[in-house]
């Protein structure tokens, strides 16, 4: 009985730790294809898209964001059905969100999305 309780306690502690670590991303309602997100709150996410993928998209902050095209200095995104082009180290507002292109390399595109 004691061994059973200890195993249960360890499982409960592990589950709570996992939920605690995944909490912000879970709250943001994130689903993705060739992309990942780090969402420290329910109003902000940093998204990394796989630049070489034909279809890179993610659903964060209640909106789907996908890569339409990219060059060395800008990216065109579809944000909730509307297109926006963002220059490197610049931001643009669209659909109640501010999108900032923080990095673009041969392999990835990193944008920060914040509710306005």
Walk me through the structure.
It is a single chain. This protein is α+β, with helices and mostly antiparallel strands and about 120 residues long. The N and C termini lie far apart (about 55 Å). The protein has one helix spanning about 1-30, and strands at about 30-35, 35-40, 45-50, 55-60, 65-70, 75-80, 80-85, 90-95, 95-105, 110-115. It has a five-stranded antiparallel sheet, with no helix packed on it. Keywords: Signal.
Give the key terms.
globular; 116 residues; five-stranded antiparallel sheet; 10 strands; disordered N terminus; signal; 23% helix; alpha+beta; 1 helix
List the helices and strands and how they pair.
Elements: H1 2-28, E1 31-33, E2 35-41, E3 44-50, E4 57-60, E5 63-70, E6 74-79, E7 82-87, E8 91-94, E9 97-104, E10 108-115
Antiparallel strand pairs: 1-4, 2-3, 3-10, 4-5, 5-6, 6-7, 8-9, 9-10
Q: Strand order within the widest sheet?
A: 1-4-5-6-7
Largest sheet: 5 strands, antiparallel
Number of β-strand runs: 10
Helix content: 10-25%
Domain count = 1
Secondary-structure element order, N to C: HEEEEEEEEEE
Please, how many helices? 1
Summarize this, please?
Keywords: Signal. About 25% of the residues lie in helices and about 55% in strands. With about 120 residues, the protein is of the alpha+beta class.
């Amino acid at each position: 009985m004691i061994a059973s309780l200890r195993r249960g306690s360890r499982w409960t502690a592990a589950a709570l730790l996992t939920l605690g670590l995944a909490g912000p991303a879970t709250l943001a309602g994130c689903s993705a294809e060739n992309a990942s997100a780090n969402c420290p709150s329910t109003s902000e996410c940093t998204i990394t898209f796989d630049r070489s993928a034909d279809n890179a998209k993610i659903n964060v902050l209640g909106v789907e964001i996908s890569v339409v095209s990219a060059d060395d200095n800008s990216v065109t995104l579809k944000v909730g059905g509307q297109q926006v082009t963002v220059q490197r180290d610049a931001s643009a507002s669209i659909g109640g969100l501010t999108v900032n292109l923080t990095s673009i390399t041969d392999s990835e595109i990193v944008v920060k999305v914040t509710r306005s």
